[in-house]
Amino acid sequence: MVLMFRKAIALALAMFALAACGRMPSPEPSDGRLQIVVAFYPLQYAAERIGGDQVDITNLTSPGVEPHDLELTPQQVVQLQQADLVIYIPGFQPSVDQAVAANATSTSYDASTGISLLTTSTGSNDPHIWLNPMNMSIIASGVSERLTALRPDRTIFAKNLTSMATDMNSLNDRWQTGTTNCANRDLVVSHEAFGYLAKQYNFVQRGISGLSPDAEPAPATVAAVADFVKANNVKTIYFETLVDPKIANVLAAETGSATAKLDPLEGLADPATNYVSVMNANLASVKAGQPCQ
After folding, report:
1. Per the domain annotation, does 167 fall within a domain?
2. Are 209 and 122 members of one domain?
3. Residue 178 CB: number of other CB atoms within 10 A?
4. Are residues 135 and 227 in the same domain?
5. Does 9 or 226 have the greater pLDDT score?
6. Which domain CATH number covers 145?
7. How many domains does the chain have?
8. Which of 200, 213, 214, 122 lies closest to 168, judged by CA?
9. Using one digit for the tens of pLDDT, what is the confidence trace for 81-114?
10. Of the candidates 91, 75, 69, 79, which has an alpha carbon nearest to the alpha carbon of residue 14?
């Protein structure tokens, strides 16, 4: 609570400084490209696929940074303020939510629009919508509509949307086929980021932590998950790319299970990868860990 209060104060001070100085000078010209600001990687992927060479994209979350922990700099607030379009998911990054509300209400796009949201055990919405490829198609469709509204003469957006939808359908087909016959459908993960993936492919998610990967689980919670793993013959406990795997390793050692990486795609750890290649790697990990034939 104290940390969130400090973040709110820091962001408020940055916004006050911008207001006191007036609107800061615009960035260097971008040869006519639309200026797009995205909150974190999956939204960058959608904007790149749909916008192509018609857009210049700024990602507020640097590669390798855990997006839940993002604190915006004054420069990033200016970029968000001056963008033609800001793409974000409410409830995922508090600092972005606050900056959008103060600076970009007319230019922002809620990427969860049109998606049936899951609720957590606490009653809040689960923001990890992108881990279902079909939701990525919905996100891409919304981005295409917003870009077309900004540039009605550009038919390339519709063409790019068709291409991306084809890729998402193919990815979904691979997941459907690859996970049809699995020995175990209990997906034990380090934090509850995989609800949409689990629902789409008929798994049951069991998280060691809740929605926040930084939340330290109570000893009683870890003990309950250990009992669950033993009682349900769970063979694999999944850890994440950008989060310390310590608790997953301890739990695996206690239960005799293996560990494997399952990437929530909140950011790219390897710039040579992309959304599709990481989701393909996730599929291979799940097929081996559950295991699936």
Report:
1. no
2. no
3. 17
4. no
5. 226
6. 3.40.50.1980
7. 2
8. 200
9. 999 999 999 999 999 999 999 999 999 999 999 9
10. 75
Instruction: Examine the domain organization and report whether 17 and 147 are in the same domain.
Output: yes
Name the pLDDT band for 210 (thresholds 50, 70, 90).
low
Nearest by Cα to 46 from 172, 186, 157: 157
* Mean pLDDT rounded to a whole number for the chain: 89
Name the E strands within the chain: 34-38, 55-59, 85-88, 108-110, 186-191, 204-209, 236-239, 258-261
Tell me: do 130 and 180 sit in the same domain.
no
Place of tokens 């033609």: 84
Instruction: Report if residue 235 sits inside a domain.
Output: yes
- Say how far apart CA 153 and CA 101 lie, in whole Å: 30
pLDDT at 148 over 90: yes
* Residue 170 included in any domain: no
Residues 147, 181 share a domain: no
Q: What is the pLDDT of residue 19?
A: 41
- 181 Cβ neighbours under 8 A, 6+ residues apart: 292, 293
Helix crossing, 156-178 with 133-150: angle to 10°? 180
Q: Are residues 11 and 125 in the same domain?
A: yes
In this predicted structure, the answer to whether residue 233 has a pLDDT above a threshold of 50 is: yes
**Element of type H or E holding 7:** helix 2-21
Asked if residue 5 has pLDDT above 70, the reply is: no
Q: What is the mean pLDDT of residues 166-182?
A: 98
pLDDT at 288 over 90: yes
Question: Per the domain annotation, does 70 fall within a domain?
Answer: yes
* Share above pLDDT 90 across residues of the chain, in percent, rounded to a whole number: 73
pLDDT at 6 over 70: no
Let me know: does 51 contact 157? Beta carbons within 8 Å. Answer: yes
Instruction: Tell me the residue range of the domain where 117 lies.
Output: 7-24+31-153
Same domain? 134 vs 208:
no
